[in-house]
Write a structure and sequence with these properties.
Pathway: Sulfur metabolism; glutathione metabolism. With 553 residues, the chain is α+β, with helices and mostly antiparallel strands. The strands form five sheets. Strands 6-3-2-10-9-1-20 form a seven-stranded antiparallel sheet, with helices on one face. Helix 2 packs antiparallel against helix 3. It binds 6-diazenyl-5-OXO-L-norleucine. The site of 6-diazenyl-5-OXO-L-norleucine has 16 residues, from loops.
Length: 553
Amino acid sequence: MRSFLLLWLAWSVALWAGPKPPQAAIASAHPLATAAGFEILDQGGNAFDAAVAVAAALAVVEPAGSGLGGGGFLLLHRARDGRQVMLDARETAPLAARRDMYLDAAGNPIPRASIDGPLAAGIPGMPAALAHLAENYGRLPLRCSLAPAIRYAREGFVVGPRYLEQVERRHAVLGRYPAAAAIFLEKGQVPRPGFRLVQPDLARVLEALAARGRAGFYDGWVAERLLAGVRAAGGVWSRADLARYRVVERRPVVGRYHNVRVVSAAPPSSGGVVLVETLNILSAYPLTHLDPATAKHLIVEAWRRAYRDQALYLGDPDFVSMPLRRLLSPDYAAGLRAAIRPDRALPSAWLAAGPEAGGAGADTTHFSILDRDGNRVAATLSINYLFGSGFVVPGTGVLLNDEMDDFAIKPGVPNLYGLVGGSANAIAPGKRMLSSMTPTFLETPDRIAVLGTPGGSRIISMVTLAALDFAAGFRPALWVAWPRFHHQYLPDEIQYEPDALSGAERRALHRRGHRLKALGRTYGNMQAILWDRFLDRVEAASDPRGGGSAVVR
Ligand code: DON
């Protein structure tokens, strides 16, 4: 009897845990970051240890996109018990922040005040996230999982063409701050090809984190330097800001599209809500059987409505109450769908008035990890704009974010990505600014996807298109590569990459009343993994638009 019970127990645990992937996979925006992740898996680390290694490595080798001076959202799936959780490592507004801190006496936004320099920086969440991940989910000590990043920072690495292009775009602001210029520029200029980026101060900060966990960053000599450096350059951080910063574990947003379970980012990201609302609206259309122009029209009409709700309602859940049950409800979506005409675009201005939403580049970063136990991480990390605020705190090598710009600086005034908001996303002390970052899992009984991308407000439309591709049975190499189109309520236009819309589609959309805007360039840098349990196969893909690397091993 006892052995029967044991057998039954083992069987039900195996069933619960499911089969294991035949291989592990990592897709990230930089080959050295992907390599750092595998180095840690090879040492017996799990996907969460690898995530610490990849995130820390990206902070060193892709400094324009994310880092210790920034934040992000990490979506976790633990195979052992099926636990799914979102680590919210979003930056918080300093306690001295005020609703109108970026406005002049006449109430007008002060140009670039929320974008350049330390006043634009929220309190970083990334160091706390790394410590939290290692302590609560990892198998290895931080000392091990941070080792590759520390090595990259100390020994340096030769930058690629992407880095040089990014510096070119933020050269002016990096040149303004001596500690930033000394690290990222070469004699005050955009470096020449072959430039070796060495960051010994950052290596010491990573070592402090490795030795003392979160206290290594938010307390002690690092904290002293952060406070002194920020305040000397016009910032308003206080000791209390650093001491009270906490990572928050939040329940992911969950929805369903046909047979796909969608697990995605919860507020203070708008990503999961807008994604699920969009898919709910689309779920009644036979998209793959419609002519392509009609399908694209319907997708745009769904985005128009879901992005509007983002602008109207969403913000930090610890500060504002949001009608999430309504926004995520299939019945609410059915009501929105009823007002969609297949032959006409609805002008955004005809939807009940609200604040609005806008575009994005190649900053911020995403990585996806699957280990051989079936643990998964989808992480989108950011310092907001390219090289964040451009301000490096002297003596730390830590480049600070300019995430404060993701708040609604003033109702109706668009941020860097054209997004506007109202009081739900107004600045308040200690509050988290609304984000579009959308790390996502897509799950059917046979197939599991781990994905995400940078791209500001376009992140959510990119992940929508990938979810539709996944549901239609396409493989990750296509999700990440397919040309993209986008609509975000306001501005009321379909933006599109070269080759995204055929001539006939453009004409058909124009006839329906859409305004079309050719961007003339690409956007996004999606990193995706597919575990096909039916075929017992793992695939990974890195967006051909970026210089990343996807490895299955
Ligand atoms: O959290 C957000 O939505 C933005 N800070 C993300 C910025 C971004 O993706 C820039 N990338 N191109």
